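hey team, just a heads up i'm posting the complex here instead of the shared drive bc the drive is being weird again. everything in one block, sequence lines first with there labels, then the predicted structure for the whole assembly after. its two chains so it's a bit long, scroll down
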Amino acid sequence: MSENFYIKNLPNGLTLLGQQMDQVASAAITLLVAGGASHDPTGLEGAAAVASEWCLRGAGDRNTRQLNDDLDALGCQHHESVTSEHIQFSAAQLGRNLADVLAIYADIIRRPRLEDSTFEPSRALVIQTLASLEDEPARKCGLLLQERFYPQPLGRLIYGRAESLQAMSHDAAREHIRSCLNPRGSILAVTGSFDWHVFCDVAEHCFGDWPEQPVEPIKTTLPPAGLTHIPKDSTQTHIALAHRSAAVSAPRYYAARMAETVLSGGMSGRLFTEVREKRGLAYHVSSHYHSLKEFAGMFTYAGTPPDRAQQTFEVTVGELRRLVEGIEPDEMDRARTQLKSALVMQGESTTARADALAGDWYHLRRLRSLSELSEAIEKVTPEEVLAYLREFPAENFTVLTIGPEPLDISLIDG
Amino acid sequence: MEFKQTKFENGLTIVAEVNPAAASMAAGFFVRTGSRDETSAVSGVSHFLEHMMFKGTKRRSAFDVNREFDEMGASYNAFTSEENTVYFAAVLPEFQARILDLLCDIMRPALRAEDFEVEKKVILDEIARYQDIPQFRVYDKLMSEHFAGHPLGNSILGVPESITALKRDDMQAYFDCRYSPGNVTVVGVGNLDFDAFVQAVGETCSKWPCCGDGRETSRASVAGAEKVISDKKVLREHIGLMSSAPSGQDEARYAAQLAAAIVGDLTGSRLFYALVDPAIADEASMAYNPMDGEGAFLTFISSDADRAAEAVRLARAEFRSFVEQGPADAELLAAKNKIASAATLKGELPMGRLTAVGFDWVYCKEYVPLAQQIEKLFAVTKQDICEVVRRYDLTAATMLALGPLETL
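-- predicted structure starts here --
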């Protein structure tokens, strides 16, 4: 597969990224705007989530219905989401419709109407989504763990708090959202079937005169590790734990991904083998790596019957800790093949590549080709993985459980 | 892109969409069996069996199976529905021979007693896990209400009692009957060598003996009941509505797919504007579910309990006005563009094409290239859609609600 990368930095701070892909008719765009949940001011927690709803409710000359209908008519599969660091706008469509879709996104980002009348339903939807978490304990467990693990406010629950949402005024939300929609630090990636020069002309026409605004750096404080238990009369006990890992930009990043894969890649991973296959303790157990710009974690989750929760917890922590005692050559081989195969398969998807380009630029300020990634994975030695595990030991866990009874975590205390 | 097919004497069929330009290949075993083919005594056996298929064979232990998939860096899994059990894997083309050797081998599992008992605990935990997901509970109960007295109402996971009581030999008997070669379609998609593919599958699977592989496919007499399950542990009201729709074999399925998109796509649909845009519900969507000799339109709504009645009333009003007036030209065109665009994106990945090619064959014994699928979609008229929603009466929906409310 050819890897034709393009990069263009606009004077206002917006970066345009591109990768042409053979054999596809689609073009995907990922637009990361630097105003995620961690930028929500105190008292306005949830503003970014409200923005992701509100910006689509009328922009430029179009009201809500016209906007949606026009995107639909272009066959645009769009999705808006909020992370700690960004508000993300994703859109995939046939390459020939790219320019028209981009013009609509210029309205959404630069000329959202943010009217009083559309604020209330936008806020109400975020309040309902927050309330829905009560009926999704596994998801709630993961989100609340992030909140307790990452430095505040980086791990903050993206939907905010019921109180902050209830108290939010449309004026305050509008003022904050307008200041967040800023080209400085924003990234627009396009992949698939497109012409780079045409794309740049359209993008510059749409975003070239987007005025930049100063960005306030976020002050962070580190939360304490330890256990939080949320009592719930649920059928399962949900156990989530996190410990530090190497950020994407760190030298031991690839060793971290290898460690993650040995633990939890496929069904031969250590967690699946020991917790589910040998002991039948849990249907779902897994670890996944997640990184913010400067802070990363290994997040482990198991859902288990309450009467087996303590054993599941102990076996899981035991496996996380046992890794540093040594990794077999065949485990390394499997992990390498799994990571490299996953790269090739993700490389076939325009949306996955657009996300990867934008992510690379955000974390590294450069783009990694699939062959560079593949070589980097190939070069990781068992010694490097062990060195990573000594640098980021399975200690100082942040633990969050939801279920009938709390766990005894003396095993990981001190 | 080239379509290939062959059939062995024992009835096992191979179909493939070969695309030498793809970077990967995917292979799948589509077995025509699921919860609708179970008796109540073995409720949940199809899904439990799906787990046991990864637990080893005469030549491989369970750990060997897992290890070998991972040695190839395969992206693999399996799923069980009311009427299909599908095992699939995507790999780089260099692993074609190995992945087929593994997939073919696991399709004749050892079903060892000790593995059976360990996995039984996992299945019971999976059932418990889904009990914590209200939307799943709604689906399970709604199917049993809507298809009351018909095998499609059978639960996929079964219940703790049926799983606990299930014996290893019951599973073997079910396997021997349902995994007959006439019920199996092997599907290949992407960058693969078809001749080698056929040879590899043939070495193992062409010798499989035949046995009964039939299925009861009479149309259900659907109930149209309304039921509210009150559970104070659930905070929001979760509502499912189900009505009849064209079957998976019916050419009207393209019109049905468009009707569902116009009425209930996640964005820009009638339910979106009626319920989600004004924040009466945080979720309101409709899907079309084509099945073997049957079909259903399925709507999910999630709302605050105090707005649930209003949400259902508005959804039913949308169904009624759609049946009376049909789609506007602009919304029909937008729905066509949306579905075509989604199918194109999905079709760019071998794994995405695998289920499309597989189910076209399983249900209709036909191969529909992506371009032709899009042509068929664009040929659907406003009149076709009106006929579908009138003939199957979108307004005659079975309703099931789960949440804090006592009545709705």
